[in-house]
Amino acid sequence: MNAQAPRVRTLGLHIADVLGRYVDKIPDGQGLTLLDEIKLTVAGTAAAPAVNLARLGVPIATSGVVGDDALGQFVRSTMEGEGVDVTNLRVDASAPTSASMLNIRRDGSRPALHVVGANGKISPEDLTDDILEGIEILHLGGVGLMPGIDGPATVDFLRRAKEKGIIVTLDLLPTGSASDHEALDDCLPYVDYILPSDDDSLLLSGADNYADAARWFLDRGVKTAIITLGAEGVSISTKGDIDRRYPTTKVDVVDTTGCGDAFASGLILGLLDGEPVEEAARLGMACGSLVAQGLGSDAVLESYEQAKAFADTLPRV
């Protein structure tokens, strides 16, 4: 484990992913299909950014819940081996570790089968002041899929984080129901950087374009809205500058699992280093592009030097 005090804490979803590639079809009955690769990885909107940040050299801690089972042991031991402080990754024997089975198609898309499990056990008791001590950035990952804390508990926690001067980044997983806004809307005044995907931004805002989607977030108190656009790059908006586009570069995509989480990790590192948001987003896009070239959330991305070298090849506006 990294002996330095953590500068960043991730809080939210911790998942064990089982991925197989390439899945062109599911065989009928008890038929057999041979795959090129099957892999077990640490994933989730809190766990994956934490692993990536550790690889990028950032002292990092994480908070959440896993089950008292083999998958939970895998998630904890793997993250600890990567250098993540898992002291506050709580074990709860009343639910299995959250897990997904991902069938990776040749275009990189990934239909999923998912068990919510222990992520549903994250509770207000996990949102203590001590996990905020000393950190510079809090990354909250998974708003909308954490029923134990979505809503007032999270709002209060983010308020306390801002009172301590902590930068808040937020990723979300909307379901398309009214509960999305119950979980998210009151959090927005405490969010410095929100990181929705292109589809999620339109779903939540009801807009039909990214400029209006960004305005929806900004009008509710978010300081900066960063909409990830996949192969098209990102859209960055602040009150004075709406929907400025930053392109990425084309890569040979193997699997898009975890690309958004990798983007978050690069962005966070750039912000820690005092970079303007545009440069931080370039590092984020580099991390996402690297992960897209392998299988799983932990693929290809290995170090800051590697990510920085890739970021330097990206086109500039």
Automatic annotation (TrEMBL):
GO terms for cellular component: cytosol. SUPFAM superfamilies: Ribokinase-like (SSF53613). Residues 20-299 form the Carbohydrate kinase PfkB domain. One of its GO terms (biological process) is phosphate-containing compound metabolic process. It comes from the Bacteria. InterPro entries: PfkB_dom (IPR011611), Ribo/fructo_kinase (IPR002139), Ribokinase-like (IPR029056). Pfam families: PfkB. GO terms for molecular function: kinase activity. Keywords: Kinase, Transferase. PANTHER family: RIBOKINASE (PTHR10584:SF166), SUGAR KINASE (PTHR10584). This is Sugar kinase. The lineage of its organism: Bacteria, Bacillati, Actinomycetota, Actinomycetes, Actinomycetales.
